[in-house]
Design a protein that fits this description.
This protein is α/β, with parallel strands linked by helices. It has 2 domains: 136 residues, Aspartate Aminotransferase, domain 1; 254 residues, Type I PLP-dependent aspartate aminotransferase-like (Major domain) (Aspartate Aminotransferase, domain 2). 40% of the residues lie in helices and 17% in strands. The chain is built from 14 helices and 17 strands. Helix 4 runs parallel beside helix 5, helix 11 runs parallel beside helix 14 and helix 12 crosses helix 14. The protein is globular, with a radius of gyration of 22 Å. Bound molecules: pyridoxal-5'-phosphate. The site of pyridoxal-5'-phosphate (PLP) has 12 residues, from helix 4. Pyridoxal-5'-phosphate binds next to helix 4.
């Protein structure tokens, strides 16, 4: 199984103090922490072979290019993509979604329909609204129920021959719900619709297989998988990436340029204009190596234990309500206590060294559904412990007492 005490030694930040108390980091759904193995890769890059890629004949440029392309192969392998050119480096999930939404501007017509889910992050709502404004397409929403689960019968009934695109997250960042994306993909394909899955929250906990899912596009961010910020990946099926126009113009993405006509580079470079986050890409590969060494089966089994334990403890606090009680969920717990404002509890917890998120979690429609301004969200990774949860529960009880 999983040797948490040893794993924690890999994370320097977990040993610092915050406000005079040992840090307890429960804001993993916003960003994860970085192990020394990944930090070392970053330091090594800038200390030893920092250079621009794909253009230099000199040795440093070759080394950097090799490491960057090697990391692309690791990403391909991790997600089981058929071709390495189906992996596009992005600056993160938001960039990947906007790249696709922009690309479809020229492929959609007035009256076409786009389906998103009620559980989406703002970054998976706003780009589609903008796309609808540009094209005259219509946005439809798969509703959710009180448990925070998508109502699939409603999905079945809004799906039709006009449906061109379906966008859904694999796991909700606000509630932790694991969505039945295999079902959604299969049903959408029956109508010829293209499916994009936002994997920002799933990749830290499970290992998605894009070919088994038969998904058309899949996006994620490295910083939620123990990697650095500012880098992520977009997986796209070759046929779709070929059909989509480039997102940004610039260096790296061209084959030939003249003032009369420019031809674009082949995949993946067509979508990778400008100097990328080279070090970030290499570190992304190292982060996947790190997670795979621990093993995703071990990670999810352990995190489920943490989820179960924390849920049981929280439920014993009077007046505490958990939002998001789906049967299938990951280690994210959103809750409120009585009428206490989440921000007030979050502030007191911070004084005790405990980092949780408070607010709408970039998912205002979900908060509107529950008629609340926000929640407190505790989200766990494999480096968290039951002892930390105990400390958190004690601190939470104290905060509630102070505020009621
Ligand atoms: C974090 C997150 C995003 C946005 O990721 P960025 O790295 O900020 O681009 C999108 N969707 C979900 C579900 C997320 O959790």
């Amino acid at each position: 199984m999983l040797d948490v005490n040893n794993i924690r030694k890999d994370f320097p930040i977990l040993h610092r103090q915050v406000n005079g108390k040992p840090l307890i980091y429960f804001d993993n759904a916003a960003t994860s922490q970085t192990p020394q193995q990944v930090i070392d890769v970053i330091v090594d890059y800038y200390s030893n072979y920092n250079a621009n890629i794909h253009r230099g004949v000199h040795s440093l440029s070759q080394e950097a290019t090799d490491a960057y392309e090697q990391a692309r192969l690791k990403i391909q392998n991790h997600f089981n993509a058929k071709h390495s050119h189906e992996i596009i480096y992005t600056s993160g999930t938001t960039h990947g979604i906007n790249l696709i939404a922009n690309g479809f501007s020229s492929l959609l017509q007035k009256g076409d329909e786009i389906i998103v889910s009620a559980l989406e992050h703002h970054s998976n709502i706003v780009p589609w609204q903008m796309l609808c404004e540009r094209t005259g397409a219509i946005l439809k929403v798969i509703p959710m129920n009180q448990n925070g689960e998508l109502v699939l019968s409603e999905f079945d009934s809004i799906l039709n021959d006009n449906t061109k695109l379906v966008f859904v997250n694999h796991i909700s960042n606000a509630l932790g719900t694991i969505n039945p994306i295999k079902y959604i993909i299969t049903e959408a394909h029956k109508f010829g619709a293209v499916v994009l899955v936002d994997g920002a929250q799933s990749c830290p906990h499970i290992k998605p297989d894009v070919q088994a899912l038969d998904v058309d596009f899949y996006v994620c961010s490295a910083h939620k998988i123990c990697g650095p910020t500012g880098v992520g990946m977009l997986y796209g099926k070759e046929e779709w990436l070929k059909k989509l126009p480039p997102y940004q113009g610039g260096g790296e993405m061209i084959a030939e340029v003249s003032f009369e006509k420019t031809t674009y580079a082949d995949l993946p470079h067509k979508f990778e204009a400008g100097t990328p986050n080279i070090c970030g890409g290499i570190a992304f590969g190292a982060a996947l190596d790190y997670m795979n060494r621990i093993g995703f089966a071990n990670i999810s089994a352990y995190e489920n234990e943490l989820l179960k334990y924390a849920t049981e403890q929280l439920q014993q606090i009077e007046g505490l309500k958990i939002y998001g009680t789906a049967k299938e969920k990951t280690s994210v717990i959103s809750f409120n206590v009585g009428n206490i404002h989440p921000y007030d509890i979050g502030t007191i917890l911070d004084k005790m060294g405990i980092a949780v998120r408070t607010g709408h979690h970039c998912a205002q429609p979900i908060m509107d559904y529950f008629k609340i301004p926000g929640t407190i969200r505790a989200s766990f990774m494999f480096y968290n412990t039951k002892e930390e949860i105990d400390t958190f529960i004690t601190a939470l009880k104290k905060a509630v007492m102070m505020l009621s």
